């Protein structure tokens, strides 16, 4: 065993680098981006409200999303010991019950910040945090069913973050219907994105009874479902944008959907090997469409 491993196993408190790794900064981008889409779609100029935007981005990413990562790693520690034993908890770099303590503390801090940003932001955070715990923790442990678990994450990472961004700019008012529709559709599409993440852990999921879609449906069927679930909501977005008389934005989103479809053809040839590739490149194209759509409804709201 290396000197680092020996220190980790003998530690009684986690080091800050291990805590940061537990909170997984790389996962913060989707909700932070969705929050920004909400800000744009509100049609309200940031102006002197920049501090609300900064606080909201911190809430969506490091706080709520960070909480979900800590909760997931704590309740998944036995699965991770098989799939990814070098993660902070199974490796011992987050010793004892510190993983749980961090998850609880980050939940409280998230609620405190959300309460400072208004009623709708607070309740959106409550729902997002409840979904984070329900996804990973017993007795619900929604991740045991890939259909429900991925839906919970999609709603939390994309829909609630988008709605929160719009609500912050509208000073706590309910966002208009067109904003809510886009948030819902991109949440549904994110279900497919979450399925991409499950291809890397099929072995552990099967051994531990986790019903991710690749484990439940098999690799090929899960890959096809993933692609359909990602594409159909975006096709609906294109139709809505045309109906809202935003043809340029609709055409741009349609082009981005076509690019994803071409990537998916390659992905379907070897889903396990190419899931990470599609997750990196295809999801980048997906979230680009989110921002295009946000600017489309910003124009509807009179924001230019």
Report on this model:
This protein is mainly α. The chain has a single domain (11-300), classed as Orthogonal Bundle (Farnesyl Diphosphate Synthase), CATH 1.10.600. The protein is 79% helix and 0% strand. The chain has helices at 3-10, 16-23, 29-41, 50-75, 77-83, 88-91, 98-116, 119-136, 146-169, 177-198, 202-208, 213-217, 219-243, 247-269, 271-300. The longest helix is centred in the last third of the chain and has 30 residues, at 271-300. The termini are far apart.
Largest sheet: none
Structural class: mainly alpha
Elements, N to C (H/E): HHHHHHHHHHHHHHH
* Total strands: 0
Distance, first to last CA: 60 Å
Beta-strand residue fraction: under 5%
Mean pLDDT: 91
Number of helices: 15
CA-based shape: globular
Low-confidence stretches: 1-9
Number of domains: 1
CATH fold name: Farnesyl Diphosphate Synthase
Q: Judging by the overall fold, what is the CATH architecture?
A: Orthogonal Bundle
CATH class descriptor: Mainly Alpha
């Amino acid at each position: 065993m290396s000197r680092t491993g020996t220190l980790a196993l003998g530690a009684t408190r986690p080091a800050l680098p291990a805590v940061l790794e537990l909170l997984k900064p790389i996962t913060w981008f989707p909700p932070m981006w969705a929050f920004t889409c909400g800000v744009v779609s509100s049609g309200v100029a940031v102006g002197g409200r920049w501090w609300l935007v900064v606080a909201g981005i911190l809430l969506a990413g490091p706080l709520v999303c960070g909480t979900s990562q800590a909760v997931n790693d704590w309740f998944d520690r036995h699965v991770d010991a098989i799939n990814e034993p070098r993660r902070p908890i199974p490796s011992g770099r987050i010793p004892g019950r510190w993983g749980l303590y961090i998850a609880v503390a980050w939940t409280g801090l998230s609620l405190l910040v959300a309460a400072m940003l208004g009623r709708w932001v607070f309740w959106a955070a409550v729902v997002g945090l409840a979904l984070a715990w329900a996804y990973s923790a017993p007795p619900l442990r929604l991740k045991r069913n890939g259909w429900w678990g991925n839906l919970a994450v999609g709603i939390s990472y994309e829909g609630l973050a988008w709605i929160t961004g719009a609500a912050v700019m509208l000073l706590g008012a309910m966002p208009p219907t067109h904003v809510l529709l886009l948030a819902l559709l991109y949440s549904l599409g994110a279900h497919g994105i979450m399925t991409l993440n499950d291809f890397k852990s099929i072995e552990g999921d099967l051994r531990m009874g986790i019903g991710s879609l690749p484990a439940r449906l098999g690799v090929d069927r899960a890959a096809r479902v993933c692609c359909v679930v990602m594409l159909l909501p975006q096709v609906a977005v294109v139709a809505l944008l045309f109906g809202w008389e935003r043809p340029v934005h609709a055409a741009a989103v349609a082009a981005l959907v076509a690019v994803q479809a071409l990537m998916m053809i390659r992905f379907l040839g070897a889903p396990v090997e190419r899931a990470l590739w599609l997750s990196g490149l295809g999801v980048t194209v997906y979230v680009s469409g989110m921002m295009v759509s946000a600017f489309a409804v910003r124009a509807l709201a009179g924001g230019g």
